[in-house]
C-alpha cells in the first residue's frame, strides 16, 4: 500500500486516542519534573508520598461526591487484581455477573475459578449490548461493568431491586467509565477502576470506592476465613481489609509505582478545578457525540452499538464496511502519527475503537474524523 500523507493542517494537535493507556497531558509531565527530586525514588511510607496518596483520596472523594461512610481505597495491581480481591474478600457464597464483552467476562471467570465459591449466575448478552443481573435468591454480590472497554457498551448503574434487603453488594467495574461517565456512588458498594483511562495515569494500581456495607463485608469475610477449618485462604496481596487499613494511613500494602501516583494526583486536581465529574462527563459526551454523528452520516462507517442509549461516551466503537479494511486505515493513520484507534483484538471485527476521555480535546476528535475520511478516500 502506498503511503498516504495527511496534510499537516488536518492533523489533530494531539494524536493519541487510546482506550487505555490513554493520553497523558503535558502538565502531568511537568508535575513529574517537580517530583523528580522530592518524591521519585523515595520511600512510599514517608510523608512526601503519603501526602500525594492523601491528596488523591481526598480529590477522588470530592470528584465523585461520595456519601458519608464511603471510603476511597487504593491497592497494588490493576482492576484485574481487584477481580480477585472481590472473590477473596467480598463474595461470601455466590455472585451474579453481567457478561457482555471480554472484560465483564473476566470477572465472571475469576469467580468461577475460586474453589471456595459457588459457580456464578451469569446474565449474558451479545457484544454490542449489555445485560444487568436480575435479583437472584442466595446471591450475595452482583457484578457488572459500567463501560465494557472491549465493545464500547455503556450500562446503567443502580441498586438491583431487593438487593439491599437480601444483604447483597453491588460491585461495578468502572475502569473505562470512572471519570468519564456520570455515576451515583450511593448506588454501589465497590466502584473500582484503574487510573490509566480517564485519569490519564499508568497501570499497576486499583482504586475502589467502598460503602460501609462493603467494608463490613470484607471484615466479616476476614474473620470467617481465620476460623479453624475454614476453606478460604486470603492471600495478603488480595486482602481488602489490608488495603483499607493501609489506605487509611495514605499508603499501599506494597511499593506502588510513584510515577503513577504523581500523574494521577495531577489529573484529579485538573478535573476538579475544571468542574469535577459533571464537567468531565459533559466533555466526554461532546467528544463521543462527534464520532457517533460522523459514523451515522458516513457512507462506509456506522456505530457498532446500535442502541444509542447503550453507546459509551468513553470508548467509541465504529464498524467499517468490509470494502474498507480497518487494518489499512489504522496503518495509514499511524504512518501520520495518529495512534491507538484499533478495535479490540478478541472481538475480531472490522472496526475502529476511539478513546475520548477527558484529556482528549473535542477539536482533536473532530479532526480525527476528517483524517479518517481523507485516508479512506485514498485507499
From TrEMBL:
Pfam families registered for this protein in UniProt: Aminotran_5
Looking at the record, which segments are called Disordered?
Answer: 1-22
The answer to whether the entry has keyword Repeat is no
Q: Name one GO biological process term.
A: pyridoxine biosynthetic process
Primary enzyme class: transferase
- What pathway does this protein act in? Amino-acid biosynthesis; L-serine biosynthesis; L-serine from 3-phospho-D-glycerate: step 2/3
Enzyme Commission code? 2.6.1.52
Q: Show the catalytic activity.
A: O-phospho-L-serine + 2-oxoglutarate = 3-phosphooxypyruvate + L-glutamate; 4-(phosphooxy)-L-threonine + 2-oxoglutarate = (R)-3-hydroxy-2-oxo-4-phosphooxybutanoate + L-glutamate
Mention one GO molecular function.
Answer: O-phospho-L-serine:2-oxoglutarate aminotransferase activity
UniProt keyword annotations, A-Z: Amino-acid biosynthesis, Aminotransferase, Cytoplasm, Pyridoxal phosphate, Pyridoxine biosynthesis, Serine biosynthesis, Transferase
Cofactor(s) recorded for this entry are: pyridoxal 5'-phosphate
Show where the Aminotransferase class V domain sits: 143-343
Q: Which PANTHER family match?
A: ALANINE--GLYOXYLATE AMINOTRANSFERASE, AMINOTRANSFERASE CLASS V
Similarity field: Belongs to the class-V pyridoxal-phosphate-dependent aminotransferase family. SerC subfamily.
As for what it does, the entry says:
Catalyzes the reversible conversion of 3-phosphohydroxypyruvate to phosphoserine and of 3-hydroxy-2-oxo-4-phosphonooxybutanoate to phosphohydroxythreonine.
Provide the protein name.
phosphoserine transaminase
Organism encoding this protein:
Bifidobacterium choerinum
Amino acid at each position: 500500500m502506498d503511503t498516504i500523507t495527511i496534510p499537516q493542517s488536518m492533523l489533530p494537535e494531539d494524536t493519541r486516542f487510546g482506550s487505555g493507556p490513554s493520553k497523558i497531558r503535558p502538565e502531568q509531565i511537568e508535575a513529574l519534573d517537580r517530583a523528580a527530586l522530592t518524591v521519585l525514588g523515595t520511600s512510599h511510607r514517608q510523608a512526601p508520598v503519603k501526602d500525594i496518596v492523601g491528596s488523591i483520596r481526598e480529590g477522588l472523594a470530592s470528584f465523585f461526591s461520595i456519601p458519608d461512610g464511603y471510603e476511597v481505597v487504593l491497592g497494588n495491581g490493576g482492576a484485574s487484581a481487584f477481580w480477585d480481591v472481590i472473590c477473596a474478600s467480598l463474595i461470601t457464597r455466590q455472585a451474579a455477573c453481567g457478561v457482555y464483552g471480554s472484560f465483564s467476562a473476566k470477572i465472571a471467570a475469576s469467580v468461577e475459578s475460586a474453589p471456595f465459591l459457588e459457580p456464578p449466575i451469569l446474565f449474558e448478552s451479545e457484544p454490542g449490548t449489555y445485560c444487568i443481573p436480575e435479583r437472584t435468591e442466595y446471591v450475595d454480590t452482583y457484578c457488572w461493568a459500567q463501560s465494557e472497554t472491549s465493545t464500547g457498551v455503556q450500562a446503567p448503574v443502580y441498586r438491583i431491586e431487593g438487593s439491599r434487603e437480601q444483604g447483597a453488594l453491588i460491585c461495578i467495574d468502572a475502569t473505562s467509565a470512572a471519570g468519564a461517565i456520570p455515576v451515583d456512588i450511593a448506588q454501589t458498594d465497590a466502584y473500582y477502576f484503574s487510573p490509566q483511562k480517564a485519569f490519564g495515569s499508568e497501570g499497576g494500581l486499583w482504586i475502589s470506592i467502598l460503602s460501609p456495607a462493603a467494608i463490613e463485608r470484607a471484615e466479616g469475610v476476614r474473620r470467617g476465613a481465620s476460623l479453624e477449618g475454614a476453606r478460604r485462604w486470603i492471600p495478603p496481596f488480595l486482602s481488602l481489609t489490608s488495603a483499607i487499613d493501609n489506605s487509611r494511613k495514605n499508603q499501599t500494602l506494597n511499593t506502588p509505582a510513584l510515577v503513577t501516583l504523581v500523574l494521577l494526583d495531577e489529573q484529579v486536581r485538573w478535573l476538579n478545578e475544571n468542574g469535577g465529574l459533571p464537567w468531565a462527563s459533559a466533555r466526554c459526551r461532546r467528544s463521543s457525540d462527534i464520532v457517533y454523528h460522523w459514523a451515522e452520516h458516513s457512507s462506509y462507517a456506522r456505530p457498532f452499538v446500535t442502541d444509542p442509549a447503550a453507546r459509551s461516551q468513553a470508548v467509541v466503537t465504529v464498524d467499517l464496511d468490509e470494502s474498507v479494511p480497518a487494518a489499512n486505515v489504522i496503518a495509514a493513520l499511524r504512518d501520520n502519527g495518529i495512534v491507538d484507534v484499533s478495535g479490540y483484538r478478541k472481538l475480531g471485527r472490522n472496526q475502529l475503537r476511539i478513546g475520548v476521555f477527558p484529556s482528549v480535546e473535542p477539536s482533536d476528535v473532530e479532526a480525527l474524523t476528517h483524517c479518517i475520511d481523507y485516508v479512506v478516500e485514498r485507499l
